[in-house]
Design goal:
Order of helices and strands: EEEEEEEH
Number of helices: 1
Structural class: mainly beta
Distance between the termini: 18 Å
Length: 81
């Protein structure tokens, strides 16, 4: 999140104390920043990416290269004001 963006306008909120972990503003998804390497569970080598999961689930439902891309792909919406 940029310094001039308030949490109520963000699509993803950083989990405090857990760098690289985010929760979607609508509370449906989590995103984990992962480094480039081979991922056996996905059976492929990936560049730096975010693993997207449903909130409370360990199963990866997809990946995205940016949080903005993840928001677009999974329909993340801003929390109501």
């Amino acid at each position: 999140m940029s310094k001039n963006q308030s949490p109520k306008h963000a699509l993803w909120i950083s989990e405090s104390g857990s760098p690289g972990f985010y929760i979607s503003a609508d509370g449906r998804f989590t995103a984990e920043l992962r480094p480039p390497r081979f991922y056996p569970e996905l059976e492929c080598k990936l560049q730096r990416h975010y693993a997207i999961r449903l909130l409370g689930s360990a199963q990866i439902i997809g990946t995205a290269t940016t949080l903005a891309e993840a928001a677009r792909l999974y329909g993340v919406v801003r929390a109501p004001r």
